[in-house]
Each structure stands twice: as C-alpha cells, then as structure tokens.
Specification:
One of its GO terms (molecular function) is sterol binding. With 457 residues, the protein is an alpha+beta fold. Helix content is 21%, strand content 26%. The chain is built from 10 helices and 18 strands. It binds cholesterol.
Length: 457
C-alpha cells in the first residue's frame, strides 16, 4: 500500500453544496444519449473520467501479491480481490466526472504501478488505459453507456479489462458490472453496482462467477457480492463473499456448506414473511436444495446463491425514495475464511470534498517532479477542472464551454480539410487476444516522454 503522506490530503477548498436538482436538468433529456448532454458544472466533481479510471489502481498491491503466488487458484483469489476493490471508490460518489476531451491523457506513477490513460474516441466516448509494474500488466478500455430511465440512470461500462502475468504466461479478463444511480426525480441519490462478473483465467481454465446483488429493497443485500471459483470442469473450488464497498473474503466449499446448514436463519429473508413454511429448518432445507441444484455451467440469475429468499416481496418494505441502509447486525462470517481485500477508510473530510477517497484527493495534484516533463494533454492541465477544484464555479463553467467549443471546431476543421481522422497517440485499435473482442492496445511509447502536443486545452 502507498505511503499516502507523500501526496496531497485535501483539495484546496471544500466543495460548494448546490441546491440545484438533477431532475430539473434531466427531465428534458429522456431518451437522449446522455454523453451528448451538457450538464451544469455544479453536478461535476473536479476530476476527469480518465482520472476516475486511474482509481482502479488504489489497491494495485493485490496484483503484486497475486503475481507472487505459486498456485493458480490463490492467484485467482487476489485477482478477484483486485477486480472488486477497483470499484470501492465509487461508493457515494455522485458527482459527474468531466468528459475527457479527445486526445486528453492522464498519467500516474506510484510505488506499486504506473498507468497511462487516453481518450481515444469522442463519439462514442471511449477511454483506454494501460498499467504495469514489472510482474503484471493491467489494461483495457471503457465506453460508459448511460441509459436514463426516468427514476434512475443505468450505466453500462462496456469494454473488456485484462490482467496479465507475463512471467507466468497467464491472463485474466472480465467485464465490469452495471452501475445504477437511483432517485433522480425525488429523494436522495444513491448508487449500486449490480450484475454478474465473470473472471476467466485463460491458462488454468479457472473461472470466478460473482454476483453483485441488487438491493432492490432488501437492505441485507446492499452492496453484497458473492460467488464461486470454479475449475475448468465447473467444479466449485472456493466461495467468495463480501461487499464491494468494504471487503472480500474467501472460504472453502465445505465450510460454506456447513455454514449454510447451520445458519439458515441468517440466510433467510428475516422475519418479514410469516408463512408457515418459513421455519428455519424449512428455509435451511430449501437453501440446501437450491445450493445443490445450482447449475454452475451456465451463468444465469438463479446461479447466484442468494442470501435472501425473495427480493421481490421485500421491495414492498422500503419507502420508495429512501436509501437502503446496510444492516450492521447482519454479517456473514464463515469459519476458515481469509480476507483478500479490505477497504481503506475514507478521510474525515470526505463529505466536504465530493466524497473523495484519500487516493482521489491526490489525483489532480501537480507534483513538483512533474513540472517540466508533463505531457501537455494531461488532465491536470485542464483549466475547467482546476477552477472547479479551486471553488470557482462560474470560471469553471466558462472554461468548460470554451474547451467543448474548441473541440467541436477542431473536429469540424479536420472534417473539412479531409485530413485523416483523429488518431490516438498511445493506443491503437485491435483485438483482445484472449476474448477476441475489439480492444485498444498500448503502443509502449508514452513513458519515453517525447510529446508532440496537439493543443486541446
Ligand atoms: C463505475 C465503475 C465502472 C466504470 C464507470 C463508468 C462510468 C461512471 C461509473 C463508473 C460511476 C458513476 C458515474 C459514471 C459516469 C457518470 C456517473 C461517475 C466509474 C455519475 C454518478 C453520474 C451522475 C449524474 C447522473 C445522475 C446523471 O467500472
């Protein structure tokens, strides 16, 4: 883990808490492609999406630990830890990062990693990244697709991410789960990560099938993640569980089965439904039946070992526009578990600073050593983000508009001159060798620091 003391602890000034209601903007946008909507800068946080992507790296030490393990299953455990930990900084972060400008870049070099990100396409918005540290490589691209449903916004981070351990000739890939922002019209905004994540190891054939549960009114499931590690013949090897906001643990299948048998009450949907069938032993039996009938080959909804019997009837219980609370009394702690990942606590001042983590606080800092070698397209040099960070909201808005117009003009003149389309400088389009999906490949040149600067700011 980083010695974070070296870096900035807070932003220059606390955030401005606006009274502005997001619905007043979005009600005119139903059905529109959200990436094309200009949102008032008061909804922004002073980071670009490229910087937000670099937040995946906060727990990069897990990749180092993974690369040091002898056994492929243990490596998989730490890769799972890394994949889930990468989402933790999203908790309560409801500010909108700035859309990166075409050609914008962001670099970050720390003890455990260095990463380079580039905005490789504007419409549709695609951000590519490549991180490494000798023993591992982590790369991918993200094309966030926002769907606006009225009461909620659904964000699908399209694109595949890959971890490679070159010395071991091993690669893992997965796709990030959906993110859902609730209470757009009324109530307090809140966010959850939902869906299935399948992490595949191409060398061993191991797979991790994880389910990020929908709170859907059942507060017990809020932020919960659980699933299994399977070998190549779909045999369950380990049970993995936790919350993407807090921790990930791992235990063996026997301990898990025993725990389900002995703790049926914890696994039942609590006292809400009072049907005669809901006696603990009945629930326990049902849970085991369900467990035994799990079809692990195909990855469908019923594949996840639900810790609640029914989410549907539970949803009646929650006030429509409230935020589900995590039940602190409810904790699964299965014997023989090991903790793979544990979240760093948020800094005390976090709520005055866009709910930033300590790591996020440092991302827009221009460190002294960067002064004379920084790439001229680096997000840290964006004047609109800098102004928002300094609390100058009007100034930020002016700069944001200017930059967006400048980008539009550059686009137009490229089109009229019939010069070639924009080509990204550090990535080129290719095919992911493992999944065969479209992907962006790093050309390896960024850190040579020979920058020809397109003037984008
Ligand atoms: C979630 C984790 C994914 C990558 C990813 C892509 C887009 C991000 C999303 C993450 C988090 C939430 C996000 C979103 C873009 C806009 C949205 C930052 C990082 C914010 C909360 C939008 C708020 C405004 C709406 C209410 C209109 O792997």
């Amino acid at each position: 883990m980083e010695v974070e003391n070296e870096y900035r602890h807070v932003l220059p000034v606390p955030m401005y808490h606006s009274e502005y209601n997001i619905w007043s903007v979005l009600k005119n946008c139903i059905g529109k492609e959200l990436s094309k909507i200009t949102m008032p800068v008061v909804f922004n946080e002073p980071l670009s999406f490229l910087q937000r992507m670099a937040e995946y790296m906060e727990y990069a030490h897990l990749l180092r630990i993974a690369s040091q393990q002898e056994d492929p299953m243990t490596r998989m455990q730490y890769v799972i830890g890394f994949a889930v930990s990468a989402l933790a900084s999203n908790w309560e972060r409801l500010g909108k990062p700035f859309n990166p400008l075409l050609g914008e870049t962001y670099e970050l070099e720390r003890k455990e990693f260095k990463i380079i990100c580039e905005q490789v396409s504007h419409h549709p918005p695609v951000s590519a990244f490549h991180a490494e540290n000798g023993d591992w490589v982590f790369h991918g691209s993200i094309h966030p697709k926002l769907k606006f449903w009225g009461k909620s916004v659904e964000i699908q981070p399209k694109g595949v991410v890959t971890v490679e351990f070159p010395k071991l000739n091993e690669a893992y890939t997965w796709t990030n789960v959906q993110c859902c922002v609730h209470n757009i019209i009324v109530g307090k905004l809140w966010m959850e990560q939902v869906g299935n994540m399948e992490i595949t190891s191409f060398a061993s054939g191991h797979k991790a099938q994880l389910t990020f549960k929908q709170a859907g009114g059942n507060s017990k499931d809020l932020h919960r993640v659980e699933g299994f590690i399977l070998d190549k013949s779909k045999h369950k090897l380990k049970f993995v569980y936790g919350k993407w906001t807090e921790f990930i643990k791992c235990t063996d299948i026997n301990s898990y089965e025993e725990y389900v048998r002995d703790n049926s009450t914890k696994f039942s949907s609590n006292s809400r439904s009072k049907s005669p069938n809901d006696s603990p032993s009945h629930t326990s039996r049902k849970m085991l039946q369900k467990f035994n009938s799990l079809k692990v080959g195909s990855f469908n909804k019923s594949n996840s070992m639900s810790t609640s019997e029914s989410v549907d009837d539970a949803s009646l219980d929650l006030g429509e526009n409230s935020v589900p609370k995590s039940e602190s009394t409810y904790s699964i702690d299965i014997p023989n578990s090991i903790t793979i990942w544990q979240v760093n606590p948020r800094p005390a001042q976090s709520s005055d600073y866009y709910q930033f983590t300590q790591f996020a606080m440092s991302l827009n800092e221009i460190e002294p050593k960067m002064q004379d070698c920084m790439c001229p397209t680096d997000s840290r040099l964006r004047p609109d983000i800098r102004k928002l960070e300094q609390g100058d909201i009007d100034g930020a808005a002016v700069e944001k508009t200017r930059l967006e117009e400048k980008q539009r003009d550059a686009n137009k003149s490229r089109k009229s001159k019939k010069t070639a389309e924009w080509t990204p400088r550090w990535f080129h389009q290719g095919t992911n060798p493992y999944t065969k999906q479209d992907d962006w490949e790093y050309n390896g040149d960024y850190w040579k620091r020979q920058y020809t600067d397109p003037d984008i700011f």
